[in-house]
User: Fold these one by one.
Assistant:
Number 1:
Amino acid sequence: MTKENKVSADFILHNLDSAVVYPNPYRGKGTKVGWETKELKHASIASKNGKIVWIGNSADLNENVKIESDTYFYNGEGLLAVPGFVDSHTHLLYAGNRADEFEMRVQGKTYLEILAAGGGILNTTNAVRNLSEEELFAETSHRLDMAMDSGVTTIEIKTGYGLDLKNELKMLRVIDMLKEEYPLRIVTTFMGAHAVPADRVNDSDSFVDEICQEWIPAVAETKSAVFNDVFTEKKAFSVEQSRKILNAGLKYGLKPKIHADEVNVLGGVDLAVEVGAVSADHLLMTGDEGIKKLVGSGVIPTVLPGTSTYLMESHHAPARKMIEAGLPVAIASDHNPGSCQFLGANMIQSMAMLQLRMSASESLIAGTLHAAHAVDMGNEIGAIEVGRNMDIALFELDSFKQIGYHIGQNYLYDLIIGGESIYKD
Ligand code: NIG
Ligand code: FE
């Protein structure tokens, strides 16, 4: 029997062993968070112009999907399909390395002590200022390749190692170059307020004014950045300064994000709720009160278990409490040269399970759908659902539960982005 209203497709991921769908996906502020996953066995997924048009049992394909002469069939035998991972918080663009500081930390120095002594972010800033756009592109492309190899189909990248207008704009241009060269989706965040440059520490208020009055208008003009992020922390930016910066960004259409409660609780969560931040990230030290404030706020709490592990913290973000409170917790890598060298999405899945005690389903949803919400793309990517972009990570695994389980190992077979195979065809 043929159906009248078959959907037409130009790409079919056919005969998959299984595909993971989310029966109750979070759909944004005011809606319920669902943590269930379902593995559809013997599945096929059809897309047209890069958007998913049908998902179902492979045996039902012909009855539901109109096959044209040029419809492309991708053989999914032996493969598991999960939504492409969204890494919603990275500092992927930088130069050099801080292996010496890593060793210093292992031997007892703290992250903030190193920053206050002119190392840390300021160390990387010197390295970034000394490289050309082409050199920065080359260093970063290596890492971007590794992120994709782990299943990432969308990545957020922050500036914040320029720390003067010229070099912040240079970083934006390099991210634009990456966007042009790479098939994955790249979302840009301006983070001029990442650290106070060494020569401005006694005069940080005027540095903040400069960011608000000069940098943000110039950044907005490039149209390269979507978000405006700030490091609200002792030895970085106070709540008052952060408020100024996030509000200045809002005036120019840059959506707020915030690094909050990473080392100390200063009030970053309250500020995130006050300015309507898209996400509040880290939240390592966030207590019950902070969690209460986040409930119903629409701010996506993004926890970064790679960072707390890499910083050797005895404590991790209270993800379980957040989940119990009904929050749409997201996870991301925070990959950067100082506080987190973990990079692959599979590694972050493992860290979420081991350190935050999240289940495999919770970790997967947090690293795909909720992370998509954390870059304000929660209705376009992050789940295998009709109407969304056909962004899929294909693994040679029997179940998504094996992604976090096989710690440090990678079973990625291919990525599909916008209905196109990245590695195989
Ligand atoms: O998210 N906290 C501030 N920024 C990064 C670290 C950046 C760096 O150390 O280079 C973070 O942990
Ligand atoms: Fe960060």
Number 2:
Amino acid sequence: MALQVVSPRIRGFIATNAHPDGCALNVRRQIEVARGLRGSTQRYRNVLVIGSSTGYGLASLLSAAFGLDANVLGVCFERESTEDRTGSAGWYNLAEAHRVAREESRLVRTINGDAFSHAVKQQAVDALRAEFGPLDLVVYSLAAPRRQDADSDTVWSSVLKPIGAPYTGKTIDLRNDAVVETTIEPATDDEIEATVKVMGGEDWAAWLHTLADAGLLAPGCRTVAYSYIGPEVTYPIYRSGTIGRAKEHLEASATALTAMLKDRCQGAAWVSINKAVVTQASAAIPAVALYMSIAFKLMKERGTHEGTIEQIVRLLREHLNLDVPLVDEEGRIRIDDWEMQPDLQAEIAAIWDTITTDTLTEVSDYAGYKRDFEQLFGFSVPGIDYAAPTEVHRLIQ
Ligand code: NAD
């Protein structure tokens, strides 16, 4: 037992603690949205989610378990509480997801460890054999800052940098709520290669090959990985930058994986292009926080704003429920369609050109962005008494 009053320790886009009750309430809210999926498809009985503790992966786990009544194995990299530190948000999210699943007699299991390693892949194989059986769906939702090579001491670190030329443009300094101009020097060839190693499709393919070799892909098994394109204003830092290069690799991997899966189990692989949402991964990308603040205000006004859970529910209800999911001319599922509407993008671009620190709160939903960010860690969640001590040692069981 360790009862503590937990106050936010957040600086810029880094938070070093989390509130267990706020995280738990966030999860229960997502579960309620996920339940709206019930009855929409019988296709997925056993599901593996890689990157299951926060963001799009957590929404995928909750949708599969509580919306589709599937058995779900999740893989994540989270931190349990210690004597002097709270657990990470993802840890508390899964503690609550497991608690509700147990209460409802659902099968949800978690492996907490490095998804890039052979050992964790083997643990997943063992857990699937022991309790699940072959998989109908594999969701790849990893967002990692680095990858240790499974076969050597090499460590690759991903960078968020432009390619070819420096990027100079607007961004928000989250520490003092100011719109500032930033310049980021272009990546070296080694940095580009390292980012592709971490965020490209190599490890996604390694997971599917391991599962296929272990006989753990059910006939017709599907896999989906998440990607992003976004608007032209963020191209230099996102789509045409190092992370975009990794996403191109991920998207190309879907083609090779479909060929492999077709051969092994009549299965298929897709990349889903998702909407920009506030997550731990996206908060770190320069310019993206400012873009999201503007976009969210306009999308809320139009009634088209979605968070991670609404996006994944739509992915399952309108795309992955079909015999042949709807795709664009490059074979990608598009649930960023509402974000990318041309008239919306034109409005965002006009605001982007003129926004300053003085107009930030008036022409954008920066307040909403900040609240979303704090809520990722269980803070600023309505209904939580932050003055009350709470148990910080929670178990994922
Ligand atoms: P996130 O930071 O919320 O989640 C990342 C997940 O990966 C967590 O569960 C974390 O525990 C896990 N993880 C990280 N390193 C790991 C490791 N070594 N081993 C095991 N697990 C590990 O990120 P997110 O924004 O939900 O991103 C998920 C995917 O969605 C990414 O591919 C991202 O590019 C994509 N995406 C995100 C957005 C967005 O706006 N956030 C938009 C479109 C697509």
